[in-house]
Amino acid sequence: MRVFFTGGSGKAGKWAIRHLQAQGHHVVNIDQTPSGLDCPELLVDLCDSGQVIGAMSQFVEGAELDAGTGVPTYDAVVHFAAIPRVMIGTDGECFRQNTLSTYNVIEAAVKLGVRKVIFASSETTYGICFADGTLMPDFVPIDETHPTVPHDSYAMSKVCNEVTARSFQARTGADIYGLRINNVIEPHEYDEMFPAFIDDPSLRRRNIFAYIDARDLGHMVDCCLNTDGLGYEVFNVSNDDMSVDITSDQVIERFYKGVEVRSEMEPNETFFSNKKARKMVGFTPRHSWRDVLG
């Protein structure tokens, strides 16, 4: 597939693009910063709707000119570009850029006839990550039916983006899938970060004791590219196991006492349920911090 990929210069985007290329997809990176990856790139301000629709409807490399058949079209759009969290700039600017860029990208895609759009939502939509103080989930494990009541401008932007995506899907019939991505971990970060999580599991409370390996996130994007006909859907994206070295029963006793437990959990099972993604798009994460640290 020919894929218009926004945000490929970022932490998650680089890994996703590499994975998609390994599966044979032709990926064009759209960002404001060069990625250093071996793929064609355009530098675009996604908050400018004219730049977005222009980038999606132009040549991107000289080899495309040789066929003499006009500008090639895209089979799919993957939208990862965003201000990645609060407390980088102002809250309002985070909200503005994240919502406006998503509107512009999805609008351009559907107007140009792209029938598959995958966009990055977030674990923060459930409100827990950036809440002031301790916010308990309504139930565990958290699945996609859990209420999304954001407590910060980044999470607000992601909830708004889900509404925007659902609206575009309803009026066009395209497949538009949102990924509620948990804390993205690169392979080298297991040695750097996880010993502290083993010593102090409370460090992972705001991430619902979950994580997603950057390589498995790329796999999830590919699963979505290869699954047609779902209309609008959102998926939690996490690895199968927790990011702490205590059992699920111990997590419940220490951190979720009094919270409804909706299903019996395996000892290492993630509290950020990925069962919907497994069932509907064939997501099968392959990596674990335990493979590195034992």
UniProtKB/TrEMBL annotation:
Residues 5-222 form the NAD-dependent epimerase/dehydratase domain. This is NAD(P)-dependent oxidoreductase.
